[in-house]
Amino acid sequence: MAQQYNAGSIKVLEGLDAVRMRPGMYIGSTGSRGLHHLLWEIVDNAIDEALGGFATEVSVTLHKDGSASVWDNGRGMPVDIHPDLGIPGVEVIFTRLHAGGKFGNDNYAYSGGLHGVGASVVNALSSWLTVDIFRDWTHYAMRFECVEDKKEKKQIAGHPVTKLDKVGNTRKRGTLIRFLPDPTVFEETKFQFETVRNRIRELAYLNKGLKIVFEDERQDSENRVHEYCFGGGISDYVRYLNRDKTPLNPTVIELDGKKDDVVCAAAIQYTDGFSESVFSFVNNIPTGEGGTHEAGFRAAWTRVFNEYARKIGALREKDNNLSGEDFREGITAVITTMVKNPQFEGQTKGRLGNTEVRPAVENIITQQLTLFLEDLKNQELAQKIVEKAVKSAKVREATRKARDVARAKNELEAAPLVGKLSACTGRKAVENELFIVEGDSAGGSAKQGRDRRFQAILPLRGKPLNVEKKRLDQVLSNEEFRSIITALGTSIGEDFDISSLKYHKVIILADADQDGAHIRAILLTFFYRYMRQLVADGHVYIGMPPLYAVKKAGNIQYAYDDKELKKLTQGLRGNYTVQRYKGLGEMNPEQLWETTMDPRNRKLMQVTIEDAVQADSIITVLMGDKVEPRREYIIEHAEFNKEDRFEGNREEADK
Ligand code: TSJ
Predict the structure, then answer these.
(1) Which of 62, 179, 468, 597 has the smallest set of CB atoms within 10 Å of its CB?
(2) Residue of the nearest CA to atom 19 in ligand 1?
(3) Residue 46 beta carbon below 6 angstroms from any ligand 1 atom
(4) Is 511 a catalytic residue?
(5) Domain 234-399 class?
(6) Catalytic residue from among 513, 590, 636, 639
(7) What is the pTM (predicted TM-score) of this model?
């Protein structure tokens, strides 16, 4: 029978108060991201059990009541009594912050480390949480709730409201956790289908052969269950990433090995395109900003291929080595590394810092790639890669010359090139903002409406060049892109230098329609490919003009989405009119300033590397050779996920 714990046990729980007091410290935010963080925390534990070789299957279910559950068929969490605390192991895990010892990292060789905040944090931020353990032929169950302490008049989070009960006998093995995020903690409590599915699919690719079943009980029956299991692991992932591109060769190169404590696997396939897509992970966590593991991979790749190029005579003794970029033109690669005590650095914690990892990965890849290139059956592919790199080097050289000419020309006639730019008067880059505005007419309004002390305007005429399938020299010769590059002052590609950035906020202002979405995607792809650090460091924003103006007796109020409109009009009595803005051009300079540019009222969404990756993929589909995926793609993906990332939430990042 369920039994209420006595007051004496409450003391054990005090640690969870700290989490309630400052949730952001533990899960980053209390918006949509933080909410999903809870789920990933629990999922990571189940995946760890599979990584340890104890479980073969994991499931994640989103329930109609807003709760989520995660299950694995592993050993079942420990149920024995903790020697010092005198309570069951599970209870320690869910009620003690950073519960060490039995549940410390020594149980698993490799563990997230970034998430690693522990199941107790999830418990602390949930209205309730249940644990079902199937172990030793016994089904155990325990329940925690956020309860009211009447005497102290405060909430006690994560309080055990049952003992670890023996429910009955079972032949199953495993652990099942279900929890309801506390709506008094989170501004957003709805798990996003796409977000959850994408990450689960990614985890299935990263953990070869692991079966993960994702069930969203809120969806219609045909869309409810998604099962992922990839026998080819990251090689399947690369094939998936290249699904709309044309591979140079059907082979996906697979390299893997272990050196010291570092385990590394890489899958690589070349396409006929020119861009470089390297996706890396450390302990299953994406490292969008790269790091020492990527550096090791690149160093090995360049060195081994240069040696090979010499061996087959594509490079002569007198020739210089080809550059790393040349060997990565058109590459799609997924690199996953398992590291003990990973250190994540950078503004978004997306870069691996451990110095010991670089030589280890370099060693593994060098050895494995050398073996691959010695194999007779791989000669044809290897030759194609070298030929592609040689071609790339030639173009690069031609580009360099063209660029030198362009630079010299630029210095002479810098004015005409940035002629369209309406610069600001202030000289502090940190405070300055560049608005890249769709269309000359909106550009004109922005120019008149802005605060010229810190806001500069660059209008774009029509659509900028498609970045897909364009070499650097073609991108450079496009006037729209050149004026952006010149205005920002950073140069691009290898020459990119963030310290020369003239505007610390770069704000894309386009209409809220299909064309606007297209222009946003092209610009993000451009930034992602040629100025990645600009995105990674959080300098790129999307301006969000209002969708509606509500007028009443000469008074105007604005709504940025349907939800806001409803809220606004509900509060109004008497006659009012609603105007739906179709484009920026419909606003006069004062309105544009007031709604979209004035830092006191406007909404800006900060662009993340993930957005840019998504934009890149949209552009690939839009501009690629393959026609059929296009239509659906535009319809499904042309809108960005807007939650959780408004300017105010991230101002810290600027300082
Ligand atoms: F922690 C948790 F609640 F987040 C969680 C843990 C959530 C889920 C869905 C699964 C798990 C979990 C933990 N699955 N499997 C385990 N395994 C252990 O905790 C375990 C089992 C046996 C032994 C042993 O030494 O016998 C050791 C451990 C760490």
Answers:
(1) 468
(2) 77
(3) yes
(4) yes
(5) alpha beta
(6) 513
(7) 0.70
Comparing CA positions, the residue from 298, 337, 296, 106 lying closest to residue 206 is 337
User: Do the beta carbons of residue 389 and residue 306 sit within 8 Å?
Assistant: no
Strands 211-216 and 57-62: parallel
Q: Is 93 in the pocket of ligand 1 (CB under 6 A)?
A: yes
Average pLDDT over residues 187-214: 96
Catalytic annotation, pick one of 48, 438, 611, 644 = 438
pLDDT band for position 641 (cuts 50, 70, 90): very low
Q: What span, in angstroms and rounded, lies between the C-alpha atoms of 361 and 68?
A: 37
pLDDT at 601 > cutoff 70: yes
Binding site membership of 52 for ligand 1 (Cβ less than 6 Å) = no
Residue-wise pLDDT tens digits, 201-224: 999 999 999 999 999 999 999 999
* Ligand 1 pocket member 50 (CB < 6 A): no
pLDDT tens for 245-261 read 999 999 999 999 999 99
* 323 in Cβ contact with 396 (< 8 Å): yes
pLDDT tens for 22-54 read 998 889 899 999 999 999 999 999 999 999 999
> Is there an atom of ligand 1 within 6 Å of 42 CB?
yes
Of 462, 420, 446, 434, residue with least CA distance to 587: 446
Say if ligand 1 is within 6 A of residue 77 CB: yes
Measured by CA distance, the residue closest to atom 14 of ligand 1 is 46
Amino acid sitting at position 325: E
For the cut 60, the answer to whether the pLDDT of residue 116 exceeds it is no
Whether 515 is catalytic is yes
Q: In angstroms, what CA-CA distances link 550 with 449, 570, 573?
A: 21, 11, 12
Q: If you take atom 1 of ligand 1, which residue's CA is the nearest one?
A: 119
Domain spanning 17-228, CATH class: alpha beta
Least confident of 136-145, 460-469, 503-512, 540-549: 460-469
Residue of 27, 48, 61, 77 best suited for mutating to test ligand 1, as the one with most atoms within 8 Å of CB? 77
Under DSSP, the state recorded for 247 is B
Cα 176 to middle of ligand 1, angstroms:
10
Tell me the domain boundaries of the chain: 17-228, 234-399, 428-545+581-637
First to last CA, the chain: 55
Atom of ligand 1 nearest to the CA of 89: 19
Topology, domain 428-545+581-637? Rossmann fold (3.40.50)
- In this prediction, residues 632-651 reach a mean pLDDT of 45
Identify whether 513 is a catalytic site residue. Answer: yes
% of residues, the chain, pLDDT over 70: 85
**Which amino acid, one-letter code, is at 164?**
L
Of 14, 37, 12, 11, the closest CA to residue 24 belongs to 37
> What pLDDT, on the 0 to 100 scale, is given for residue 465?
63
CA–CA separation, 396 and 407 (whole Å): 16
Which candidate, 563, 647, 568, 635, places its Cα nearest to that of 605?
Answer: 647
The alpha carbon of 41 is separated from its chain's Cα centroid by a whole number of angstroms, namely 16
104 lines ligand 1 (CB under 6 A): no
